[in-house]
Amino acid sequence: MADHLNNKPFGAWIAIDIAKDFNAVLSETKAGKRQHFRMANSAADHDRFIAFLKSLPPPCIIGFEATGNYHRALGHRLVAAGFEVCFISSVASARYREVMFNSWDKNDPKDAAVLLELLKQGIIQRYVDPLIAGHHDLQELSKTYYQVTL
Question: Which domains does the chain have, with CATH numbers?
Fold first, then answer.
């Protein structure tokens, strides 16, 4: 079986563990340099993060695990800025973390490391921003219907 993702040129891998208030970010460049930091879910930190991404060697491949609706603002900003953004399954992340660390112990830096490994292996899904793709209304209607049926 051919490994299509790893044959694709990249400058940096970026894994983001999304949370309500702060996101854990782990980046790795082609040279192997890793950088780990926390980023608030705010417009100012999103601006600083996009500036950081533009300073990395292109292309940057960004992956995150969807958490509620907290990923939507950052995902929109990244897609609008022209970055390649991918979803990473929370089930795949949990299974890989269990195998990698032999425990269910969960913390943000460890989750970001797990997401980075899954991103590098190509265990991802394509991220489509509903607002940019033009089906935001359908998604909101679906979420409203879900809340009404509860």
Answer: 4-149 (3.30.420)
pTM here is 0.79
Q: How far apart are CA 102 and CA 8, in angstroms?
A: 31
Strands, DSSP E only, in the chain? 12-17, 22-29, 34-40, 60-65, 84-87, 125-126
Residue 41 burial class via C-beta count within 10 angstroms: exposed 0-12, middle 13-18, buried 19 and up = middle
Question: Which helix (DSSP H) or strand (DSSP E) does residue 140 occupy?
Answer: helix 136-149
pLDDT digits (tens, 9 = 90+) for 64-115: 988 777 888 899 899 999 999 999 988 888 888 888 877 666 777 788 889 9
Long-range contacts of 126-129 (CB under 8 A, 24+ apart): 126/86, 126/87, 127/75, 127/79, 127/85, 127/86, 127/87, 129/72, 129/75, 129/76, 129/79, 129/80, 129/85
Mean pLDDT for the stretch of residues 110-122: 89
